[in-house]
Structures are given as structure tokens and as C-alpha cells.
Design goal:
By secondary structure, the protein is an all-alpha fold. It is built from 22 helices and no strands. Helix 6 crosses helix 8 and helix 14 packs across helix 15. The chain starts with 11 loop residues before the first helix and ends with a helix. Pfam families: RabGAP-TBC.
Length: about 400
């Protein structure tokens, strides 16, 4: 009997006449197919030219802004450094801060903006490191926590090569800071949370470990971050990787309250995205923790994160949510997939079509997940500036008072 052979690829006919038409339609004549292929090549060439033009314009804007920041150094030293709290009283100084802190002053300004609400002494880091060394010598430092710290460090800003395990120049400082953070929290029964290595690394890039440790401890004690870093769900599963990838398992009351606040802000400011997410049953728990816990360092380019941090440390928790809304605004044209799985892949930065386009265009990627969507500093700030029309701090305050009355 004749045995049907399995197809091993497109037929010769398909190779010639079926390149520009779906298989369920009749094939085109070869001349029409060639003409359409030529049209497609022209369109792609124009698209690449337009994209290159856009990149050059963004690059010019970025260089112009960086030049303005350096030129503003005199104003910073004369008007902000002597009394940095004047930025809250003078809109012009606040606007200057929003443009970005000069790199020479970033360490000082970050320390001032975060403050020291925990009243930590200058030798706090040294004392915690001593406790770490004693625990390591006695074999009482939990090995699962050490393994998790090493795993977190290995994925921290890999494009910079400064924190590479065993050979990066800042590797040991980062490990010491993370172990000290674990020891400092152990008195409260709290453990390590994956993602804090990226925050500690960003701080180390701007200041020494000892003052950086004080900044790290005080920053992560702000209520919103404390809720995510100190919840029972975070402690219960030291690996918590599954929760970090998809639907977050964080279920403590404070975290749920912040999810409701974000949902309300999203519904008010971006109703189309809100209703699309509701239709696909995607809650903030599916994406918000992966942004907030590493403070956007997993998903956004380094330069964009540095500028976000400048404002976040000044404005507080409300800017965490404003920046998250800005990210959704940049992604909005891509957020209307009919399939829930595809939508979740896009939010995780794993959309295969976007990856292929980035690969085809030979785009330089530094490791930030949303670079494949052309999310950069200038594009994000366009959306954040556009939010001035509807964002109100009073709305944030009202929602916090409603959802977290004990705060």
C-alpha cells in the first residue's frame, strides 16, 4: 500500500509564489508576488530610516539635557546644597531636581532625600559586617540565604561587569552590604528578598558601602517598599521565583491595599488599559512587584532608572506608582493582545516578536527587559510629562487614607 510521506518543508511552488499571501488563499502570479516583495522591502527600508531618525533625535535630546544638567551645577551648589529642602518651597528648584541630579552631587542628594529616620550610627555597617563574619565563622549564617544572595548578585546589572561574582571590583562590597542587610533585619524575623541586590548595587555605584548601607536600610523602610520587602509571603518562600515571574504571591493586607490604589489610579488615568486588563483578568499582582521590588532596574535602561531614582527619593511612594503608570503608557500600543498569555509575556519583557525585531535591527541591548520595546529615558519622560494633565498628589493622598487608614 502507498504510504503518505510527511512534508519536510515548503514546496517549490510555495517558495516561488506564496511568500506574500497566507496559505489559505489562492497563490499569486509570480510577477505580482515579486512586485509586492519589492514594495515590502521599500516599506521596511523606510521604517528602519524612520526608527534611526527617532533614535538620533532622542540621543540629541538626551545629550542636550545632560549638558544642561552639568551647566546647572552652579545653581545646585548655590541654592540647593546649603538647604536642600528649599526644593519643596520653590517650584523652579523642584523642576531643576526633576531634570536629574548632577552625577557629582548624586551621593549627597540621595543621602539627604532618604534621610536617616532609623537613627543609624555611622558605624552601623561595620558592626553588621562583624556579625556576618562571626556567623559565617560559626557556620550559623543560613546557606539557603547565601545561595539566594549569590544568585541575585549574578543577575545584577550584568552589562556593567562590576558585580560579577568573584571577579567584579564591587562584588565583595555588594555581598557584604546584602549580608549586613539580612543580619540587620534578622532581629525582626525578616529574611532576604530577591531583588534587593539591584538596589544595593545602584547605591554602591554612587557612594561608599558604609553610607550606602544607611541609605539602603532607610529607603527600604519606606512604607510601600517595606510592605513588599517585609510581607509574610516574602519571608515564607526564600526563593519566591515563581511568584516573581507571573502572578505574585504577595498577599499581605498592605500589599493588597497598594494593588487597589494602583488599580484605581489606572482606571482614572488610563481607562482603556484598565478595562483591557480586567477583560483578561490581569491584576497589578501580575506585574507590579517585578517593577517595584528591584525599583525598575530589571526592566528599564540604567540611565532611565538613575533619573527615576533621583525623583523617587525626593517624592516618595507616590512616584513609584506614577512611574509605573508611565511605563504602561509607553507600552500602551502593545497592550491589546487578544490572548492573555501573550499579554503576560509582553509585561514580563518576553514578547518573541519584539525580540526578533530587535535582533533583526541589530539593536544594542544592555539587559533591561523593556529595551526590546524601545522604552528609554526620553520616551518614558514624554509620558510622565504628559501625565501632568491628570495626575494629582491629592488623589494619591486620598486613596492612601482610604485604603491604609492606619498609615
Amino acid at each position: 500500500m502507498h504510504r503518505a510521506s510527511r512534508s519536510v518543508g515548503p514546496s517549490m511552488l510555495d517558495k516561488v509564489v506564496n511568500r506574500t499571501r497566507p496559505t489559505y488563499l489562492p497563490p499569486k502570479p509570480r510577477e505580482e508576488d515579486d512586485r509586492h516583495m519589492a514594495d515590502w522591502e521599500i516599506m521596511m527600508k523606510r521604517s528602519r530610516a524612520a526608527e534611526e531618525k527617532r533614535r538620533k533625535a532622542l540621543q540629541e535630546r538626551r545629550l542636550t539635557r545632560e549638558s544642561q544638567i552639568e551647566e546647572s551645577l552652579v545653581h545646585w551648589q548655590r541654592e540647593i546644597l546649603p538647604n536642600w529642602r528649599m526644593v519643596y518651597k520653590k517650584p523652579a528648584l523642584r523642576k531643576l531636581w526633576w531634570k536629574g541630579i548632577p552625577s557629582k552631587l548624586r551621593a549627597t542628594m540621595w543621602q539627604n532625600a532618604v534621610g536617616n529616620g532609623l537613627a543609624m550610627s555611622n558605624d552601623a555597617f561595620k558592626r553588621c559586617v562583624s556579625r556576618v563574619n562571626r556567623a559565617l565563622s560559626a557556620g550559623s549564617f543560613p546557606k539557603p540565604v547565601l545561595d539566594l544572595i549569590e544568585e541575585d548578585i549574578a543577575s545584577t546589572l550584568p552589562s556593567l561587569h562590576l558585580f560579577a561574582p568573584e571577579r567584579g571590583p564591587l562584588y565583595q562590597d555588594l555581598k557584604d552590604m546584602l549580608c549586613a542587610w539580612v543580619v540587620a533585619r534578622s532581629d525582626e524575623g525578616l529574611g532576604y528578598v530577591k531583588g534587593v541586590a539591584k538596589i544595593a548595587a545602584m547605591i554602591l555605584l554612587n557612594m561608599a558601602p558604609s553610607p550606602g548601607f544607611i541609605v539602603l536600610r532607610n529607603l527600604l523602610e519606606r512604607h510601600c517598599l517595606r510592605s513588599f520587602y517585609g510581607s509574610e509571603a516574602c519571608r515564607a518562600d526564600v526563593s519566591w521565583s515563581a511568584a516573581f515571574r507571573l502572578e505574585s504571591m504577595l498577599t499581605c493586607p498592605q500589599v493588597e491595599a497598594y494593588y487597589r490604589i494602583f488599580d484605581t489610579l489606572l482606571a482614572d488615568g488610563m481607562p482603556k488599559i484598565y478595562f483591557n486588563f480586567k477583560q483578561h483578568q490581569i491584576s497589578p499582582a501580575a506585574y507590579l512587584p517585578t517593577w517595584l521590588i528591584p525599583l525598575f532596574l530589571d526592566h528599564l535602561p540604567f540611565e532611565a532608572c538613575a533619573r527615576l531614582w533621583d525623583i523617587l527619593l525626593l517624592e516618595g511612594d507616590s512616584f513609584l506608582f506614577r512611574a509605573s503608570l508611565g511605563i504602561l503608557a509607553v507600552l500602551e500600543p502593545r497592550l491589546f493582545f487578544p490572548d492573555r498569555k501573550e499579554l503576560l509575556e509582553l509585561l514580563r519583557g518576553e514578547n518573541r516578536a519584539a525580540m526578533e525585531v530587535a535582533r533583526r535591527d541589530a539593536r544594542v541591548l544592555t539587559g533591561a527587559k523593556y529595551e526590546i520595546y524601545n522604552v528609554d529615558e526620553e520616551t518614558l519622560w514624554e509620558r510622565l510629562d504628559a501625565m501632568e494633565d491628570w495626575w494629582r498628589e491629592s488623589t494619591w493622598t486620598r486613596l492612601v487614607q482610604r485604603e491604609l487608614p492606619d498609615l
